[in-house]
Design a protein that fits this description.
The chain is built from five helices and no strands. By secondary structure, it is mostly helical. It has one domain: Up-down Bundle (Four Helix Bundle (Hemerythrin (Met), subunit A)). Helix 3 packs antiparallel against helix 4.
């Protein structure tokens, strides 16, 4: 039976992969508040264009909802990149996941202004840079494992 030995420091990887739980809870609360303020009823996912054009609150709801949805779209990539990278470089992986999570907070705060252009201002693009780094380091780590297996 094969066993897996996790590297020293992998606890930081585990801790960092839990940080998006708090991010998603916070985003969900923000979406609910914006939904109530805009009067958008369930199951409507977004305010219609006419609603958003007529109401700033509806536009803010769309922006907050989109920030949350975008986070959900990228979360699997961030988690996989963190876990794979963490098998060789746990502190780097944990740091990048922390940067991604912080970047998503900044992204959400910018987007929640109601102006979609502000989503990457004030550090909102930090998450994109961390995501790129996780994809690249994860790919490199997979290559290392495959190369070692071929030897």
């Amino acid at each position: 039976m094969a066993s897996l030995v996790l590297p020293k420091g992998f606890t930081y990887v585990v801790a960092s992969t839990f940080s998006p739980v708090w991010l998603l809870l916070w985003q969900s609360i923000a979406v609910g508040r914006a939904r109530r303020a805009a009067g958008i009823k369930y199951p409507q996912l977004y305010a219609e264009k006419a609603e958003a054009d007529a109401s700033r609150q509806a536009m803010v709801f769309n922006c907050v909802q989109r920030a949350h949805q975008n986070t959900l779209e990228y979360l699997p990539v961030a988690l996989i990149g963190t876990l794979v990278t963490g098998l060789r470089r746990p502190l780097l992986a944990a740091s990048l996941m922390g940067a991604w999570t912080l970047g998503r907070v900044l992204y959400t705060l910018g987007y929640a202004s109601g102006d979609p252009e502000k989503r990457t201002q004030r550090g909102g693009s930090l998450g994109s840079l961390a995501m790129l780094a996780l994809v690249l380091t994860g790919t490199w780590t997979v290559g290392e494992f495959v190369w070692a297996e071929m030897q």
